[in-house]
# Entry
Amino acid sequence: MPVASFHFPRGFLWGTATAAHQVEGNNTNNNWWKWEQEGHTIDKSGLACDWWSGRWKEDFDRAVEGGQNAHRLSVEWSRIQPGPDQWDEDALERYRAILRGLRDRNMTAMVTLHHFTDPLWLSEKGGWEKGSVVPLFEKFVRKTVGALKEYCSLWCTINEPNVYALESYVDRKYPPGKSSLRLALHVQANLLRGHAAAYHAIHEIQPEARVGFAHHHRPMLPRFSWFPLDVLERNIQFEAVNMGFPSGILNGFMRTPMGNMRIPEARNTLDFLGLNYYSQYTVAFDLLKPAELFGRRYYPKGSDIPAGGDNANIPEGLFRSLKWALQFKLPIIITENGIEDSDDSLRPRYMAAHIHQVWRAVNFNWPVKGYFWWSLVDNFEWECGYSQRFGLWELNTETQARRKRPSADLYAEICKENGLTTEMVKKYCPEAFEKMFPA
Ligand code: FCB
# Structure
């Protein structure tokens, strides 16, 4: 059997990603907490991973012992600004302590300023449906970046604006659970305006800042590349899911299924592209799917899918996403990649094969600068509660105990080696060896 190692450039960022509401616990003042109390989720977030009481310390120890040199986390707007005219300096001080915790461990911090949750006072005013959110978000960003800039210069303005808009205003899985494509596009446009305002504000406060956003990218393939209706559907779906925000940033026009929206201030407001990749769809023309614009999205028969999971293990899709991202001509950071798999039977091969694809991209000299695994510890997975487990470490929500999964060891070996070796694949996921390295 061949022996090989696939190394990454010196200084490559290896980390995990988390989000405030998913790990902090007791985030009672935002729209998600309310949504949970109203019974829209499988579980309530409750204590989550109890980071707000200080358990981030033990988890950061786990990360640094596992060879990670970076961490992506988010701040909770409703903690920092509990009311429209109220700032909580203690909350900011606590975030400073958390970021100091990363610095003490020699880990680079990436801070996300908006990751799905909104303060209750904001959602009561209509949230991102109203243009008035843009100066409010900018004000929050100015305050937060001013307070945290000593510890962070890598900022992610908004996490997955496309997912936020679609889940909240089309699929009704996220608050406010409305169903209107028109509103979804309007919300996405306001998120883009908010991003642009934040981009300029951050650079004003911290000239050396690197500012990006985390884009959820879903590559899609037509069922039959020779069948024009499949190709057409694939293009319609791809545009609707993937291209709104990016087109606004590339040329100041946000392309949407209902026409272009002019947002000139968004043009060129990006220093790096954050890419969240989970899986890839196949799209077929289907007359029975009028609500989905006559396109059926699915995973091919025989796909490698975890029990109870929503994502298939399709590593080539990550390579395809990276190729797509080259059009920005900017550094690329993989801000999320991971899989729900409570018994860790699939995760090691998913991890090894995806990181192998990142290596392929790096080997073409594509500007990929870092990789953040989702996630460090199992956490509150939005509408799925604790039923979907994404962590390198398993969380017992009753006792707060953590238990290491085998993929935590695999990831530690990769981070420490700054690369992936064939020995690691043989050790952690021998079943994937042939496919990854055909004889
Ligand atoms: C992404 C979200 C993140 C997490 C993962 C599994 O869409 O950004 O918060 O829920 O999915």
